[in-house]
Amino acid sequence: MALEYVGGKTAAITASTSTATNVSLTDLSGGLASAPAAGDIVIVGYATCSTIDRAIGVNTAGYAEIAELYANDTNDANLSVSWKIMGSTPDTTVAISATGSASDPGSVAIHVWRGVDATTPLDVTSTTATALNSWVPNPPSITPVTSGAVVLALGAGAGSSAPSAIGSITNSDLSNFIARSVDNAFRSVGIGVGSFAWTSGAFDPAAFTVAGTDSTLNSSASLTLALRPAAGGGAGGLTANGSGTIPISGTGTATVSSGTTLASSLSFLAGRADPANAASYTFTSVSLGDEAATRKIAVAVAWRSAGTTNDITGVTIAGVSATQVTGGRNTTGNNISATAIWIADVPTGATGSIVVTLASDAVRLGIAAYRLVGVETLRTSGTSLPTTGGVQTLSATVTLPSSGHTIAVTFNGAGQSWISAAHDDLASGERSFSVANASTNATWTGVTEDYDASLEATNSTYSALAYAVWDVVEASGAGSISASGSGTISISGTGTATARLTASGSGTVPLAGSGAAAVAAQASGSGALPLSGTGSAAVAVVASGSGTLDLSGTGAAELVSGLSASGSGTLEIIGSGAASVGIAAAGSGALSLIGTGAASVAIAGAGGGTIAVSGSGTGAVQSSAIGSGTLSLVGSGTGIIRVAAAGSGVLALAGSGAAAVAISAAGSGQIDISGSGSAGAQDNLTAAGSGTISLSGSGSATVGIAASGSGSIGLSGSGAGAVSWQRPLAAERIYQVPAEDRTFAITGESRSFTLDAEKRTYPVEREERVFDVPEEPRRFTVNMRSTG
Length: 788
Fold this sequence. Notes:
mainly beta, 16-stranded parallel sheet
């Protein structure tokens, strides 16, 4: 099953020689749930800054330490990474060991994932790295081996105390990234962790970005691991299984699904800061994340300006003009401390420039960029503009009818000028979040901090907060199986079975039982898809390459959405129930409808092959643009066929029932209508190029033919045969006319006749005239169409 991000959190660990810290696991954010469930894996990264190699880690029973790293510099980085798979009663806290000294600060970052292989949760051996002379972590490369693996990169940096403390930590190519930086009067430490959905080859995470002034006194430590997804699975999520068997059986309802997932998403991209005085700020090559048709880029802006009138006049993102979502300017003190959020639809492009334009010069400005996909409704937005300055907390409370994607940004003027931004997916209900603006950093509560950077070492005094919340769009994965490589998926029982298959490579998908079976399959490569049982079977197949699709049983079998673009193979509908099939652009192969029920088929654009409709029931076929091949209707029931633009081949109607045929523009070939019943060509035969049309049998045969080029028309049998045709009569004809009196009513005018090749004109007055015509042959040259 697919690996899913349950959620994550960070925590500060108070410096101590002996006191452990319990960190809660019930307030996770950013993923599927707020707490781990049975079977979930909890990854704990714990970092401290010291002057020696400390023995640090997790004290809670059951955790396995992957590695404990040490980088020996003036400010020494210590990093421990451990994991545990939750049991039937998941832990609600994790105990973190003491930092080892009252001077050593500590920081923790936790990720929780669902769907990991319980036996071998780590796909390959984890890789590690340490570095001196810098606090920038650079996690090493790793090469997973299992399809669907997820890479986690963890990194820690160690630095001095303020004002040289380590700042916020970010990363450009990891998802679900969280980080926490902590400092005290002696030292500082920061840790970050993020994920990457691996597909193939080696993955080398980008080095983390660390705010603040680095030093050769600092150090870092990093670890990269790969989580292995659990193989197989049942109800609750089937995604990208390589091979095997997935049985779902019982007397109740069987639903194959991928679980409830989010159709919308929010993720942090990058942050930038510029201390310059300018009326326009350009931030180049900003990561925009993966392309998506519904991708929006939101830009959170924090800025400072002299006076009270300046404002942002526009924002462009990769050349696309953005719209302001919210914004507020705190003009207390006769200068502006301001924040705003702008958004634009930017479906394409991996990177782009973000340009912020103001009415006049600002004195410093920073941005934080976010990627939103699938969002539809802006639920709420707002600002907080306190009139008091200095260190303080700005907060907001929102009431959400459903979960909400939340972005928040603050201009921190408590001491120096800072920008700090955060995001999270807030649950429904009344939710509060806040930011505590201190002189050199900001601390968020209720949302996850993404970016915290100094704009300029100038005291601005006053702060501002802006936020926006979009409704989360949830997409139920019920009825969905995607990208299964091969194998068998069995759904059986007396209840209802619903399955949706997308891009299955090959294998067998059987749906059997007395209940209803509904299947929608797209792009299945090859194999067999059988539907059998006493209930009804409904199938929609799109672009199946080849193989067999069997619908059998006593119930109704219906191809609800048609078969389109199937390459080749066999489509069989067998049983006593009704079978209705719509097929478009079938390349080649056989289409068989057999049984006592009714069979109705509509075919368009079939390249070639055989279409057979046989049985005692009714067989109705409509076919257009068939290139070549054979269309056979055999049985005692009624057979109705309508064929348009058939290139060539044989159209045979045989049996004791009635057969009615309408054919237009048939190129060539043979049309046979034979049997003891009646055969009627309801809509005539038009424009047949050449060939043979035979009507034979003991019943009646009625045919209408127009403009046949050449060939033979044979009518034979003991029944009645009536033929009508139309043809041009531009030649000399001789008719044997019996002797009789003919009366004509003639209007007064001149009439012209051509008699014996000589044109004569007679003035005719209005009167009745009687002609005595003796029995004799008369010769006429007829320049008109006549029906005979």
